[in-house]
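I'd like us to work through together how a protein chain folds, taking it slowly. We need material for that, and I hope you will provide a protein of your own picking. Go ahead whenever you are ready, and we will take it from there:
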Amino acid sequence: MERGKMAEAESLETAAEHERILREIESTDTACIGPTLRSVYDGEEHGRFMEKLETRIRNHDREIEKMCNFHYQGFVDSITELLKVRGEAQKLKNQVTDTNRKLQHEGKELVIAMEELKQCRLQQRNISATVDKLMLCLPVLEMYSKLRDQMKTKRHYPALKTLEHLEHTYLPQVSHYRFCKVMVDNIPKLREEIKDVSMSDLKDFLESIRKHSDKIGETAMKQAQQQRNLDNIVLQQPRIGSKRKSKKDAYTIFDTEIESTSPKSEQDSGILDVEDEEDDEEVPGAQDLVDFSPVYRCLHIYSVLGARETFENYYRKQRRKQARLVLQPPSNMHETLDGYRKYFNQIVGFFVVEDHILHTTQGLVNRAYIDELWEMALSKTIAALRTHSSYCSDPNLVLDLKNLIVLFADTLQVYGFPVNQLFDMLLEIRDQYSETLLKKWAGIFRNILDSDNYSPIPVTSEEMYKKVVGQFPFQDTELEKQPFPKKFPFSEFVPKVYNQIKEFIYACLKFSEDLHLSSTEVDDMIRKSTNLLLTRTLSNSLQNVIKRKNIGLTELVQIIINTTHLEKSCKYLEEFITNITNVLPETVHTTKLYGTTTFKDARHAAEEEIYTNLNQKIDQFLQLADYDWMTGDLGNKASDYLVDLIAFLRSTFAVFTHLPGKVAQTACMSACKHLATSLMQLLLEAEVRQLTLGALQQFNLDVRECEQFARSGPVPGFQEDTLQLAFIDLRQLLDLFIQWDWSTYLADYGQPNCKYLRVNPVTALTLLEKISREMKDTSRKNNMFAQFRKNERDKQKLIDTVAKQLRGLITSHHS
């Protein structure tokens, strides 16, 4: 029973579902019925659904049939009325056709007349429109014709203005015509043509100013020189401060703006022809030489065309290239001043042009660009000057170069360029100038010293005396009182050297002019350079003369006298420098002159050379000595060579009268000591194996001659017997052997008051052995005389005994 209830419930649910699906099929669009039908087929009761569907279709068919039966009579009546209307419509159509035929026939002539009127009106309208269009086109054609004429006459800036009017004012009114389109297409080409032509003019201008930049710079530097001369005249004193021409004055020559449409602006030349001016005529302004219209014209054209930046970049690039070419110095620039002058003229000309462009155009170049170019130019110029000036060995050329650099700096400073580095570089060139001066004066001093006769200057009149005193500061009351003729103590090289030192100081002073240096700096520079001249150049020249092989004692003596007077003149050189620099020597940090030291060193070198020269002369005489050490004859006079030597010494020391006493005394003492030492060496020579007492007696005569010379006082100032002490060693040695006073020597040896204090046992032993050898040799030769052998043997024993004792003294002394 429960199963029956459950089946009945399921049947009701299925029937309700089928009913819903049927309603959905009736109300749903056909395109969306697929899912509904699918739900039917997905179930298991599709057979029952089909039965219900067919039942529903039959119900609808019955409803349709009922509705058709209800409206059928009305439909029949409507068809009947429509057939009646068709006949009436056919009649109306026929009437309208007849009426149209009649109207067409009657209006044919009117239509022809109206057609003719229409054509006339159309022609009239076309003519009027054509006239109007021609009135619009004629100004365009006239402007185009004007444009072509301006292009032919190279009036490019007006042509550009005409092109602008044509493009923006006239062509838009007639833009639909074919010829206007041709013009519009041609406008960019015309603009490019104008740009190209104006650029060509600019290139010609740049090339022209590159070729003529030296002329522009030369003119600008002449202006600066004239202004400086004028400042000097106004101030009535040397120009020390920095007097500069104002920027306003520099531009009053050329400050009128060039009109772009003026005939001058259409000229393509960059440099105007200007004849060379005489020195006494006014120099034309640097800007008068240059026609800047090509630059202005090209700048305006490119500005109008919207390509100003392109133009500026091109102009700056080309000028940078030209700057590098200008700053490249020729390889032989250092050979002549004209090479430097042309180099500076080109640089000045370049920057004069750029400075004018800076102040007469708006933004074509700016201060940063100019400063960049100037920094590059300054570094390259200074490097070139350092390199090329180092090759210069002529001080006059270096001085001219310095003046040219100062003028170059002054000229550029007028235009506002900083030039401090140039003046700093001039201080470097100053050192080089000093070196070239020193080399030049080395040659001058060498010529003076080589050509001097090293004799006192003779004067025969008051005029000659004053001339020498005017050249050299010398005062001697005794010499002034002497009658003419008389002699100065110094030779001609003293006033010549003194005057050349002054000339050197003047040359140093010339370089310091216009360097904006203080008086203290100028004074310091002059003193340092003069010190180098004295301590290096003059000192070397004097030393070379003193060390010459063929220098004589007379020349050496005169050099000592000359350097003494030059040393005294140093204070006058100090005063001379003070007078020209106005800086007192007492000023703090003032450099002192080292001339005193220089002349003292030269004098000491000459003194040493005198001592050496005297000793060499003595050695030459001693080489003539020819002693017979084996002679038995007793001579009665000194050797000839020694007599000649003493005569030479007497004559030499007579020349020393003008020398300082100490120098003469030292030379005399040195000569006597050297002579005594050389004689001692002769006596003790190892080659002399034997000698006789007779030879010793002859040697004693020579020593006595030397002592006689020492006692005669060849040079004043010695105390009594002081000079004889040079021969004391020889004298005691000879007295010991000649007197044969060995007992005294051996007994008193080592005592402070010993008679033979200066006799060395080694020396005595050496000489005794030589005498002993000679006696032994003589004994062998004379052995036939028996009566002599005993005395000789006794003497030989004595000699052996003395020699033994001497050896004992030597041994004890060493121990």
